[in-house]
Amino acid sequence: MAKDLYGILGVERDASEDDIKKAFRSRARKLHPDVNKSDDAEEQFKELNEAYDVLSDPAKRSAYDRFGTIPGAGGGQSGYVDLDDLFGGMGSIFSSFFNNGGGPTARPEGRDMGVGLRLTLEEVATGARKEIVYDRLSPCPECGGRGCGDDGREAVCPDCGGSGRVVTVQRTFLGDMQTATTCARCGGSGAVIENPCAECDGQGRVPDRQRVTVEVPAGIRDAQQLRVTGFGEAGLRGARAGDLIVTCRIQPHEFFERDGDNLHARAHASMVQAALGADIEVDGVLPDERVTVRIPEGCQNDQVVRIKGAGMPRFRSESRGDMLVHVSVQIPRKLSKRERELLEQLAEEMGDRVSETRSPLEKLRDVFN
Ligand SMILES: [Zn+2]
Ligand SMILES: [Zn+2]
Question: What is its main location (predicted)?
Answer without folding.
Answer: cytoplasm
